[in-house]
Amino acid sequence: MGKQRQVASDAGLSKQRVVVEAVRLADREGVDGLSMRRLAGALGAGAMSLYHYVASKEELLDAMIDVVFEEIELPPEETDWQSAMRRRAVSARQVLARHPWAIGLMESRTTPGPANLRHHEAVTACLRRAGFSVLMATHANWLLDSCVYGYALQEATLPFDTADDFADMAEDAYLPQLPPDQFPYLNESAAALVAAGYDPAEEFMFGLDLVLAALEPLRASA
Amino acid sequence: MGKQRQVASDAGLSKQRVVVEAVRLADREGVDGLSMRRLAGALGAGAMSLYHYVASKEELLDAMIDVVFEEIELPPEETDWQSAMRRRAVSARQVLARHPWAIGLMESRTTPGPANLRHHEAVTACLRRAGFSVLMATHANWLLDSCVYGYALQEATLPFDTADDFADMAEDAYLPQLPPDQFPYLNESAAALVAAGYDPAEEFMFGLDLVLAALEPLRASA
DNA sequence: ATAGTACAGCGTACGACGTACAGCGTACGA
DNA sequence: TCGTACGCTGTACGTCGTACGCTGTACTAT
Question: Annotated DNA-binding ranges (chains A, B) (predicted)?
Answer without folding.
Answer: 35-54
